[in-house]
Amino acid sequence: MKDQHDKRTGNLLATPNAIRQARFAEQQRAMGRKAASTPPITLRLMTERDLPMLHDWLNRPHIVEWWGGDEERPTLDEVLEHYLPRAMAEESVTPYIAMLGEEPIGYAQSYVALGSGDGWWEDETDPGVRGIDQSLADPTQLNKGLGTRLVRALVELLFSDPTVTKIQTDPTPNNHRAIRCYEKAGFVREKIITTPDGPAVYMVQTRQAFERKRGVA
């Protein structure tokens, strides 16, 4: 429907269509202002100096709930033993610190699924598949879209390697926040699987889906 003008003043009448268009335009401007004022999320490789900070994070209740499970909260020595080889590139797991501008806000890791060992992904035959895990450090930053942005940044980084064919993850079925986060970042639920840690939702994002979403031929 065409917008109408007041014949006496020449002003555009506030038709429903005009109101909707104005609201949409304002929403787009607001989104643009917010995006311009929000620092980007980037990922840097974790170093040995980050391990005391990681120890603090891994003992926070909102991380223990999903990351540590029923295990005892790790001591600093246990964190050093478990994560130092990763920081020194002595394992196939690559650890990252997620940064919001200059602020460290979380931990992430990626790994080659093939040959993971310990009962993980025993049927995998594709060397291009990568698994991921991540968590935000500050509980006050949950439910604000940062987790989705973190996952998108990690996916972008991994697919910058042309040998990577698929990225997969395995949240616990009742970790609804994580599942929603992955879905918003482009992952698709495939099935419920049994892992060494128990039941999990197997979620994937293929290179084809990633490139199709970005409009890459």
TrEMBL record:
It catalyses: kanamycin B + acetyl-CoA = N(6')-acetylkanamycin B + CoA + H(+). Keywords: Acyltransferase, Antibiotic resistance, Plasmid, Transferase. One of its GO terms (biological process) is response to antibiotic. Its EC number is 2.3.1.82. The keyword Acyltransferase applies. It is an enzyme of class 2 (transferase). It comes from the Bacteria. Pathway: Siderophore biosynthesis. Residues 41-208 form the N-acetyltransferase domain. The keyword Acyltransferase applies. GO terms for molecular function: aminoglycoside 6'-N-acetyltransferase activity. Pfam families: Acetyltransf_8 (PF13523). Homodimer. NCBIfam families: AAC_6p_set_A, N6_acetyl_AAC6. PANTHER family: LYSINE N-ACYLTRANSFERASE C17G9.06C-RELATED. This is Aminoglycoside N(6')-acetyltransferase type 1. It comes from Vibrio parahaemolyticus.
